[in-house]
Design goal:
The chain folds into two domains: 38-330 and 450-488, 3-Layer(aba) Sandwich (Alkaline Phosphatase, subunit A), CATH 3.40.720; 341-444, no CATH class. The protein is 43% helix and 15% strand. The chain has helices at residues 3-34, 50-63, 69-77, 95-104, 125-131, 147-151, 162-172, 201-207, 216-220, 253-265, 280-286, 290-313, 352-359, 365-377, 382-396, 404-411, 430-441, 473-484; strands at 39-45, 79-84, 120-121, 135-143, 176-180, 210-213, 229-233, 272-278, 317-322, 326-327, 331-332, 335-336, 347-348, 443-444, 450-451, 455-460, 469-472, 492-493. α9 (216-220) links the parallel β6 (210-213) and β7.
């Protein structure tokens, strides 16, 4: 190539490259403002990873003839990613450390609430959102002071600092607080209260402009005059499983989400951040209770549908569906039937018929355990308690039969394996009941604790692309900060 031709070629190439750079720059920069959501709704299925979400989809479509919005809408039409879950000091995280990383962008030790191993207290998501002028809300089926909602909102050295966490809620003053945990809002010894500091926090919240709801009907009523915020306390501790729930006393997760959005939307010029958690998906995993898990996934999906309906009317809303870790090592699988079965019929194949059996369950393992405790406290001996258990299983877990091994495990309060959480010892009947169901349906569990399976993160709406791909749980917080437009805050030592 001659020198003159080479020079012309280089000039043309540089011009083309410049045009490409300008176009790419324009494409990259132009959507930055358009992709900043006004509102962010985080729907949090504690303890639920991909295995649970697929179970929710399959069971919802088969048993209640409804699409599972998590998969059919958010995952299919939005973005999908995976998130590592390990904490600062363990490969298998707890809820406190996982939610802390997702809230602050800093790793924490298991048990810590948005506090670093060095003792610093990074700004939480809700604190940052509040500093940007956004309204904030927390909804959970657990206690309001439980690990996940606490870590997304406040800082504490331990997830067990219940009084301290509730005190910080009063200072932060979210527009919405809905869930269980009334015991640490009430004075010790009064109506189930456990506070030792002689502070009536229900009254303190009332004085700060909160209407107080204690049953489902209260959510349907408009806020009283001069009340702009809502505190809902629907149980002394955690709210009941959906399969056991008294709809008059306790609202569903979807009903709480609807009420939260109504309050947050009122006079919300700068938008809001809402955290909605179903903790019972995690509890069902700890109990190895596949029937309870199925109903909790449906309850969670109903709340997702509420959020998506809101987003349809307010397209400047980002909906994020995620969890913090997987619980139970949930493993629907082909297996062998119990000892003594041989030949072609000895194989157990998970199929629709097995799922229909589970769909017929009417009570959680936890409720069965509570009934047995009541029977024992009333003076029944072991044999009477076991007879009552057989009656409860026949009535509420139709199709299930207890074999001698399961009966002996429950009678002697023995664990079916070593993978039992230390605070479940001596074990409740739940792990043995889980084994009973697994042997007859193929829905097995690997543990009553957490596992290391990555969590899914799916999102739809402005900013959803940030959550695509494989990321760390600290990236979840950093992505949210980008969407809030908040500058990184320095940490302080407590």
């Amino acid at each position: 190539m001659k020198t003159s031709n080479l020079s012309q070629f280089i000039v043309r190439a540089c011009v083309q490259i410049s045009v490409v750079v300008c176009v790419v720059g324009a494409v990259t920069m132009a959507p930055a403002h358009a992709k900043t959501p006004k509102n962010i709704i985080i729907l949090f299925a504690d303890g639920a990873a991909a295995t649970q979400m697929e179970f929710g989809r399959y069971s919802s479509e088969l048993l209640r003839s409804q699409p599972f919005a998590v998969t059919s809408e958010v995952m299919r039409h939005g973005t999908l990613g995976l998130m590592s879950t390990l904490s600062n000091n363990a490969y298998v995280t707890d809820s406190a450390a996982a939610a802390s990383a997702m809230s602050t962008g800093h790793k924490a030790n298991n048990g810590a609430i948005s506090t670093t191993p060095q003792g610093a207290s990074p700004a939480t998501l809700m604190q940052d959102a509040r500093s940007r002028g956004k309204k904030i809300g927390l909804v959970t089926t657990s206690m309001l002071y439980d690990a996940s909602p606490a870590a997304f909102s406040v800082n504490a050295k331990s997830r067990r600092d219940y009084e301290f966490i509730v005190n910080q809620y009063l200072a932060l003053a979210p527009e919405v607080l809905l869930g269980g945990g009334a015991d640490y809002f009430k004075l010790d010894g009064i109506d189930g209260g456990k506070r030792k500091d002689e502070r009536d926090m229900v009254e303190a919240f009332r004085k700060k402009g909160y209407a107080v709801a204690t049953q489902t009907a209260d959510l349907a009523a408009p806020l009283p005059p001069r009340k702009t915020k809502l505190l809902g306390l629907f149980a002394d501790e955690a709210m009941d499983f959906a399969i056991d729930r008294d709809a008059v006393k306790q609202p569903s997760l979807a009903e709480m989400t609807t009420s939260a959005l109504k309050v947050l939307s009122a006079a919300s010029n700068k938008g809001f951040v809402l955290f909605v958690e179903n903790e019972n998906t995690d509890t069902a995993g700890h109990e190895n209770d596949v029937g309870a898990l199925m109903h909790e996934l449906w309850a969670f999906d109903d709340a997702v549908k509420v959020a998506l309906a809101y987003r349809k009317k307010h397209p400047d809303t980002l909906v994020i569906v995620t969890g913090d870790h997987e619980t139970g090592g949930f493993t629907p699988t082909s297996a062998q039937r119990p000892k003594g079965s041989t030949g072609p019929g000895s194989s157990l194949v998970v199929n629709a018929d097995m799922l229909r059996v589970i769909g017929g369950f009417k009570m959680s393992f936890q409720a069965i355990s509570d009934r047995l405790d009541e029977k024992a406290k009333a003076g029944a001996d072991k044999e009477a308690v076991m007879a009552y258990l057989a009656e409860l299983v026949q009535k509420n877990l139709p199709g299930m039969q207890m074999d001698d091994e399961v009966r002996a495990l429950i009678l002697n309060k023995q664990a079916p394996s070593l993978n039992i959480r230390h605070h479940q010892l001596p074990p409740t009947p739940a792990p043995a009941l889980g084994l009973m169901v697994a042997r007859q349906t193929g829905f097995y569990w690997g543990t009553t604790g957490h596992s290391s399976e990555p969590a899914t993160v799916s999102a739809i709406g402005p900013g959803a692309a940030l959550f695509k791909g494989y990321q760390d749980n600290t990236d979840f917080a950093r992505n949210l900060r980008r969407l809030l437009g908040a500058k990184p805050k320095s940490t302080t030592t407590r």
